[in-house]
Amino acid sequence: MPHLVIEHSANLGPLPVAELLPALNRSVTDSPSITDEADLKTRVLAQDTFRIGNQAEGRAFVHAQLRLMAGRTPEAKRDLAQRIAAVLRGAVPRPAGLEVQLSVEIVDMDRDSYVKEKLA
Hints:
Strand 1, helix 1 and strand 2 (41-47) form a beta-alpha-beta unit. The chain is 26% helix and 30% strand. It is of the alpha/beta class. It has helices at 17-29, 74-91; strands at 3-9, 41-47, 59-69, 99-109.
């Protein structure tokens, strides 16, 4: 933990992951609420099958979900959400003719049911 999952509609085309992943990781691990940078796992997933509202075309999305162990303050969660949104805002393509929706969600993970091990 934490896990940062970025999903986006495939009609945006490929995101610039070579620059995006390091920028996201730096932004999140610069937060005082993240104590070990090596715990952050980030991935970007394109969604080929999607629909936004009732309109068949002309819309796209990027949604980030940061999963954290429960216990952070609302202020810390808001700060993390804003950090992620700022990086995405600067990196997400805006193809002509597409309305792009950006969202960020912070999700608390239950400590009692989470298992993490380092395998050698």
